[in-house]
From TrEMBL:
<dbReference type="GO" id="GO:0003677">
    <property type="term" value="F:DNA binding"/>
</dbReference>
<protein>
    <submittedName>
        <fullName>HTH-type transcriptional regulator LutR</fullName>
    </submittedName>
</protein>
<dbReference type="GO" id="GO:0003700">
    <property type="term" value="F:DNA-binding transcription factor activity"/>
</dbReference>
<feature type="coiled-coil region">
    <location>
        <begin position="87"/>
        <end position="134"/>
    </location>
</feature>
<feature type="domain" description="HTH gntR-type">
    <location>
        <begin position="15"/>
        <end position="82"/>
    </location>
</feature>
<dbReference type="InterPro" id="IPR008920">
    <property type="entry name" value="TF_FadR/GntR_C"/>
</dbReference>
<dbReference type="InterPro" id="IPR011711">
    <property type="entry name" value="GntR_C"/>
</dbReference>
<dbReference type="Pfam" id="PF00392">
    <property type="entry name" value="GntR"/>
</dbReference>
<keyword id="KW-0238">DNA-binding</keyword>
<keyword id="KW-0804">Transcription</keyword>
<dbReference type="InterPro" id="IPR036390">
    <property type="entry name" value="WH_DNA-bd_sf"/>
</dbReference>
<keyword id="KW-0805">Transcription regulation</keyword>
<keyword id="KW-0175">Coiled coil</keyword>
<dbReference type="Pfam" id="PF07729">
    <property type="entry name" value="FCD"/>
</dbReference>
<dbReference type="InterPro" id="IPR000524">
    <property type="entry name" value="Tscrpt_reg_HTH_GntR"/>
</dbReference>
<dbReference type="InterPro" id="IPR036388">
    <property type="entry name" value="WH-like_DNA-bd_sf"/>
</dbReference>
Length: 222
């Protein structure tokens, strides 16, 4: 009788493997484990994570879509390189996207949505009071993600998700630079939330624009 070939991993298992590889690589990149420009060997990653090449390739493709790695024909995958000029340009793009997200949030959000944003402010206040800058900055990013989701625009949310990912990279690269008004971090964001809660798209858009513009292109909490 012919030998029965073993089936490959189920779609569910394959998806779980890809997610595991993606999360680990993403964490390593954001933590600066791999220097910028480092070549990523698909086979080496697969071996170290005890998986096949497929999940690794899929994970790297997703990371390339997010801007954390770069892919070149014939040269494979490398950790993305972020110059000061590129980071400044990305900040300009983020400012434009977030301004529109704030306008849409003001028009579409309800009382429950605003209350949810306020929970982020409360958490931020607690972290600032305890001097936990890293945790406060994490909540900062989560707050901006929450505002983006209130736009109810899937394409805008996706674009801002990539932008916020790169904001984490920007802050890591500038970890030793002056970091803005930490003590008033929650209060500065409260002004933004109040503008969104007003229901006036123009007021919310202006508040977001100046909230981001008031920060240096290379420093500060946004």
């Amino acid at each position: 009788m012919p030998t029965r070939k073993s089936a490959g991993p189920s779609p569910k298992r394959s998806g779980a493997l890809t997610a595991r590889v993606y999360e680990r690589l993403r964490e390593e990149i954001l933590d600066g484990v791999h220097p910028q420009g480092t070549h990523l060997s698909i086979q080496s990653i697969a071996t170290s994570m005890r998986t096949s090449n497929g999940p690794v390739i899929t994970a790297l493709h997703r990371l390339a879509h997010e801007g954390l790695v770069q892919h070149g024909r014939g040269s494979g995958y490398r950790i993305a390189e972020w110059t000061p000029l590129l980071l400044d340009q990305l900040l300009v793009v983020r400012r434009a996207l977030e301004t529109e997200a704030a306008r849409l949030a003001a028009r579409l959000s309800n009382r429950e949505d605003i209350d949810e944003l306020q929970t982020h402010i409360a958490q931020m206040e607690a972290m600032v009071a305890e001097g936990r800058r890293a945790d406060a900055e994490r909540i900062d990013v989560e707050l901006h993600v929450a505002i983006a989701k209130l736009s109810r625009n899937a394409q805008l949310i996706d674009a801002l998700a990539r932008s916020h990912m790169l904001e984490i990279v920007r802050r890591r690269l500038l970890a030793n630079a002056p970091r803005g008004d930490f003590k008033n971090m929650a209060r500065n964001h409260q002004i933004l939330i109040d503008a969104i809660a007003s229901g006036d798209p123009d007021e919310a858009g202006k508040a977001m624009h100046w909230h981001l513009r008031s920060k240096s292109s290379t420093t500060g909490n946004a």
